[in-house]
Structure formats: structure tokens, C-alpha cells
Amino acid sequence: MSEPRLAQESKAEEPVEEDPAVQLCAFRVGAEQYAVDLRRVDEIIQAPQLTRVPHAPPFVEGVIHVRDQIIPVIDLRKRLGLPRSPPALRPKCMICRVGRRWVAILVDGTGEVLRVAMCDLRPVPRLLFSPARPYVIGVCGAPDDLKLLLDLKALFAPEAPPGDPK
After folding, report:
1. CA atoms within 13 A of residue 135's CA, in its CB half-sphere
2. Closest by alpha carbon to 153, among 134, 127, 132?
3. pTM for this prediction
4. Answer CATH for 19-155 from 2.40.50.180, 3.40.50.150, 2.170.150.70, 2.130.10.120
5. Cα–Cα–Cα angle for 138, 108, 131, nearest 5°?
6. CA 109 – CA 128 distance, rounded (Å)
7. In the β-sheet with 109-117, what is the strand arrangement from edge to edge?
8. Would you state the pLDDT for residue 94?
9. How far is residue 63 from each of residues 55, 73, 121, 163, measured CA to CA in Å?
10. What is the DSSP string of 145-162?
């Protein structure tokens, strides 16, 4: 009689394989909610005084000096082609690693760190975004509070010359 009970106990002790999760840093630009992989975010600071750079791409607001690094400051509104809206009262800079470079991304506000199961990340309909510039790679969150998951590498990859296939 003890054998069947032992078999049941050993089954109960086997680890249950969980769906892997990813941690995301949520933030807001205007009325829109976004998220990026938390592993790319080093810190979030108040937007410091920046130095403008002549002839920089239109989405580069300038540079800042943070911990002995000169870091470009990116206006995410301009980079994503969003309409200008009143800036936040106290904009923040998310200092992120993109490849081997650091960038500071201007955001209106930061939210919480989200732990999202991989099965809860939904792909974005391809009809909505150009496959040549896949900035938005997914959607997560409650139906009434969706957040767009951004791919920072794609967002800051060099632009291809017009007519140049990637």
C-alpha cells in the first residue's frame, strides 16, 4: 500500500515548469504607455540641462554628461513621429544601453517595473508597422491599459538611405 502513496508524493514534488517571464520598465510619452526590457535601463534621472549639437539628427535634443560619459539625449516623440504635445512638467531621462552605446531617452513619466509572462506578450499586427523599421515588437497589459513594447536597438539603428533595401 505504501508504494502507490510514494509514487503520488514523488509526482507532487516534481517541479512544475513555469512560463518564463521578462521584466519591463514602463513609461509614458504623452498619453501613450510604453515599455522596454528592464535589462537595458541603467537609471532614471531628472532631465538635466543639455548641450545642443549642431547638425544632429532632428530627434537628438543634445548631449548630457553623466558619470564621465557624454550621452546623446533622444526625444522619443520625434523619433516615433508622434505629434508635439506640451512637455511634462518634470521630464525624465531614462539612461539605456543600446548595443555598446548609452542613450538618454526623454520621457514624460515612468511607471512601475512589470513582470510579464512571455505568454502574455502579444505580437503587434504587421499591418500597423513597417517591417523595415520594427520599433514596436509587442503589446502587453490589461485590455484597458495596453503598453507598447519598444525594441531600442531597432529604434536607434542607423537609417537606411532612401531606396536602400535592408
Report:
1. 15
2. 134
3. 0.75
4. 2.40.50.180
5. 30
6. 25
7. 109-117, 21-29, 32-37, 147-150, 136-140
8. 95
9. 13, 5, 33, 30
10. S-EEEE-HHHHTSPPPPT
pLDDT tens for 40-56 read 999 999 988 899 999 99
Contact 76, 105 (CB under 8 A): yes
CA–CA separation, 72 vs 155, rounded Å? Answer: 14
**Position 23: which residue type?**
Q
The pLDDT tens digits for 75-113 are 888 888 877 766 656 789 999 999 889 999 999 888 889
DSSP H helices, the chain, are 2-13, 76-80, 152-155
The span from the CA of 7 to the CA of 155, in Å, is 53
Query: Under DSSP, is residue 3 helix (H, G, I), strand (E, B) or coil?
Result: helix
